[in-house]
Design goal:
355 residues, alpha/beta, Rossmann fold, six-stranded parallel β-sheet, globular, binds thiamine diphosphate
Length: 355
């Protein structure tokens, strides 16, 4: 039996026209979110090139998901907690993490946030094992609630994560204990090569919340204003004691799953082209032009700033890191095992191993 999908909310149509007036979001906030999206896209394009040049390790591109990531992170209050994934580079940028820190992680050192004061940034290292951050977010938000800390936790994950036990355990616990958690699913239509239709027989991801006794909403994830509004409102509800919410941000991964993936073997060009017409960065720019008289000069200035910012960050990050291949053996275990020691020895002793 097909179950009715909740409607998807949207503020700005794909052509940039405003579908909803009376927005309580200032022009400055939209401009800042546009600037961050341009920075994220510029950085993303550069990161793919750095990987191709052998200068960084495997990278998970975010292209197409800029609005979802920036809109969600920009809606957080400073005191709120944020738990991103390996694809959420733009969330870190919108949270105020310097670009250099993101790059240092990709260069193989650190974990984005290890140089930051955790009480100030309140943003976790990226979760690589799928959905493990979901129960963590529930626990963190409950602990904050017990302590009387006026904050909520936002946990980000993909459509594929909704098939993991951790997702369901976290959702159930949050529903039972009214945890101030906002579950933010970036439904980018693919979990590596598994399409959304094979991930779940449910008509939407949002409706999964109903089974756990709370509300699930759908939002156009390529509409930064709609995402910002939905996340802000959900966080405020959670902090007012009205419980958790699941947000399904409907978006699209325009690039590969990672730089070691070739999506052309499992998806059609027509699909990619169709989603490109709904590009989130273009849409925010069109909105700014239509609603706030955004000029071509202002747009050029943002792009130049982003190019320069990314170029500077690459230089600074590469100067800061001095990694060698045998460094990968550190930090695997608290106490190195004999097998690892032997492997390290072989790498160090074999000069032909590419460094
Ligand atoms: C527990 C676990 N199982 C499998 C993997 C391998 N893996 C990495 S990414 C991925 C797909 C995740 O898809 P989704 O949750 O939709 O997020 P997306 O990558 O699309 O952002 C899988 C299966 C993993 N990292 N962790």
């Amino acid at each position: 039996m097909a179950i009715q999908a909740p409607d998807m909310t949207r503020v700005v149509a794909p052509d940039g026209t405003v579908e909803e007036e009376d927005l309580d979001i200032s022009a400055e906030t939209v401009e800042e979110m546009y600037r961050l999206q341009v920075l994220a896209r510029t950085f993303d394009e550069k990161a793919v090139k750095l990987h191709r040049q052998g200068r960084i390790g495997t990278y998970a591109p975010l292209q197409g998901q800029e609005a979802a990531q920036v809109g969600a992170a920009a809606a957080l209050a400073e005191a709120d907690y944020c738990l991103p994934t390996y694809r959420d580079h733009a969330m870190y940028l919108a949270r105020g993490l310097p670009l250099e820190e993101v790059l240092v992680y990709l260069l193989g050192e650190g974990n984005y946030v290890d140089q930051q004061d955790p009480e100030t940034l309140r943003t976790f290292p990226p979760a690589i094992p799928i959905a493990t951050q979901v129960p963590h977010a529930v626990g963190i938000s409950m602990a904050a609630d017990y302590k009387g800390d006026d904050c909520a936790a936002l946990v980000s994950f993909g459509d594929g994560a909704t098939s993991e036990g951790d997702f369901h355990e976290g959702m159930n616990f949050a529903g039972v204990f009214d945890a101030p958690t906002v579950f933010f699913c970036q439904n980018n239509q693919w979990a590596i090569s598994v399409p959304r239709e094979r991930q779940t027989a449910a008509a939407t991801i949002a409706q999964k919340a109903h089974a756990y006794g709370f509300e699930g909403i759908r939002v156009d994830g390529n509409d930064v204003l709609a995402v910002y509004r939905a996340v802000k409102e959900s966080l405020e509800r959670a902090k007012a004691g009205e419980g958790p919410r699941l947000i399904e941000a409907v978006t699209y991964r325009q690039g590969a799953h990672t730089t070691t993936d070739d999506p052309s073997v499992y998806r059609d060009d027509e699909e990619v082209d169709e989603w490109a017409k709904r590009d989130p960065v273009d849409r925010t720019r069109d909105y700014l032009e239509l609603a706030h008289g955004w000029s071509e000069e202002a747009d050029d200035e943002v792009h130049e700033w982003a190019e320069q910012r990314v170029a500077e960050a690459v230089v600074t990050a590469e100067e800061r890191t001095g990694l060698d291949v045998d460094d990968i053996f550190d930090h695997v275990y608290a106490k190195t095992t004999s097998r690892l020691d032997a492997q390290r020895g072989r790498v160090v002793d074999e000069p032909e191993v590419e460094r």
